[in-house]
Amino acid sequence: MTVAALASHFSCSRIMVMKHLETLSRAGLVLSEKDGRSRHLFFNIVPIQQVYDRWTDQYSQFWASRVVDLKASVESAQQAKESRRA
Q1: Is 58's pLDDT higher than 80?
Q2: What is the DSSP secondary structure assignment for residue 13, as one 8-state letter?
Q3: Which residues pair with 34 in a beta bridge?
């Protein structure tokens, strides 16, 4: 995708989009190639996959256990509410 095509999807200026792209490029998440007056953008999938793997591995167990705890708490509260009605 070109910078111009990407910028057309946002209500901010093209310059602002380019500043964000510069940050993503410095982080190695986006690659760009100049083709005449156009600049073509590509995802660098390797570091994106590494970030995904790190976040899902480290935090999925934490959040899964919290969801299980929340489910048990809600079900317990619902059972207590129903037993008071009976």
Answers
A1: no
A2: -
A3: 39
